[in-house]
Write a structure and sequence with these properties.
The protein is mainly β and about 70 residues long. The protein has no helices and 6 strands. The strands form 2 sheets. It has a 4-stranded antiparallel beta sheet with strand order 3-4-5-6, with no helix packed on it. A two-stranded antiparallel ribbon has the order 1-2. The two termini are about 20 Å apart.
Length: about 70
């Protein structure tokens, strides 16, 4: 599995055998003293959304500026 895949079975206490794999596609970040004061921005993937691929490109969306994360 790649580093952007989350296995919910690792944290789920139920004993079912259903697969619960999720692919991380976005992260929301807050910087500031409180939820009412500060700044939010987002990292998100763009590209091949195939769960078996590590070729996704990550971008940061910060107000009107979008930049590729290198």
């Amino acid at each position: 599995s790649n580093s952007s895949t989350i296995d919910a079975n690792d944290t789920n206490s139920s004993s079912n055998n259903n697969s619960s794999l999720y692919k991380l596609s976005s992260i929301i970040v807050h910087q500031g003293r409180s939820l009412h004061q500060g700044h939010y921005y987002c990292y998100s993937t763009v590209g091949n959304n195939n769960s078996n691929s590590n070729t996704d490109e990550w971008y940061i969306f910060n107000d009107l500026q979008v930049s590729q994360v290198i």
